[in-house]
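User: Small ask, check this?
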Amino acid sequence: MRYKDISGKEIISINTGERLGVLGQTDLQINTETGKIESFIVSSYKWFGLKKEETESVITWDMIKKIGEDIILIEFDE
């Protein structure tokens, strides 16, 4: 799977139903030896996405449970 195939999808926690962000507005943690994406770093936003908060959520590949046409479902325990 390529990054462009999943970019723009909403990231939703199946535990809380909370929208964590949109893939594409995230930072990536990449393994420099293999070139594979290890995790996504999702920043929290407030004020309708205009102001970035100081908290971040790290989402690893093993947290991803389902990638759909519009959303990515993850199992995320805060």
The chain is about 5% helix and 50% strand.
